[in-house]
Each structure stands twice: as C-alpha cells, then as structure tokens.
Amino acid sequence: MGFFDWFRKDSKVPEPQAGPEGAPTAIDPALLKSKSEAPSLSALRSLSERYVNPRLLNEGGMAEVYRAFDKVLKREVALKVLKRSYSSQSAIVNYFEREACLTAVLDHPNIPPMFDLGVNDLGVPVMVMQLIGGQSLRQMIL
What is d(CA 36, CA 30) in angstroms, rounded to the nearest whole number? Predict the structure, then answer.
C-alpha cells in the first residue's frame, strides 16, 4: 500500500511496525484507524486575521504554498492553500482536510509539523505548517 492510499476513506491502514529495539512508533494506531471524518469547512475558523503578509513560494497540482507571518506567535509559517478552482469540489476538499489531519499525527524529521487548519477569506481550506528554509527540489536538480 502506497503512502497516498492512506488518504482514501475505504483503505485499511497497515499496523505500525516497532521502532528500533522494539520502541513504539511515533504514530498512535488508534488515531489512524479512527472512522472520524475530517472537520467540515463550516467548522473551521478563518485564519486571515492571524496569518498576514502571504508571499507565494511555490505551487503544485492541488495547492499553493505561501510564506506568511503569524501575528500571535511572532514567527514565519508556511500556508498550504487549496487552489480555488478545487474549493467547490467536495471530494478534493475532503482529501485536503484528511491530509491535514493525518499530517498532524505524524512525527518525522522529514515532515513539517502541522500548526493549524482553517479557511481563508474566500472559504478555501488552509493548512498552517512549519516553514522550512532551503532550496526546492527543482532548484536542487537544476
């Protein structure tokens, strides 16, 4: 089963394997097996007041990533914003929110920590994550 198969509602999540010397993994299997749905858009609060001065860093097929400033904690963060063209497609919105929920329970050095989930002024879902500096994969390859 591939990594993205975990995002499908009907997929079975594999049992976590023990870490080095039998240590438990960082993921609580009960969280991954939970049948709870991702939060609905109406339950998410607006993030526009807290995260300001967004500047586009990059974009992918489904989302755009911005650098923004967190006014409350006084730090720069990464905002992953679902592309507006997808925000009316409930299956894609659910996928995006499920990705946020699964990312929030993962603890790995190569996965940025999730700080928040909400919507922007247009009602489009936004993930707030740790901003990690450095080059993009494209910059490293070229």
Answer: 11
User: Measured between alpha carbons, how far is residue 85 from residues 28, 42, 128 in Å?
Assistant: 34, 19, 20
38 half-sphere exposure, CB direction, 13 A CA radius: 24
User: Which pLDDT score is estimated for 135?
Assistant: 79
pTM: 0.69
Answer yes or no: is 20 within a domain.
Answer: no
Query: b/e map of 26-36 (b: 16 or more CB within 10 Å)?
Result: eeeeeebeeee
The mean pLDDT of 30-52, rounded to a whole number, is 66
Establish if 128 belongs to a structural domain: yes
Q: Is 19 part of any domain?
A: no
CATH number at residue 103: 3.30.200.20
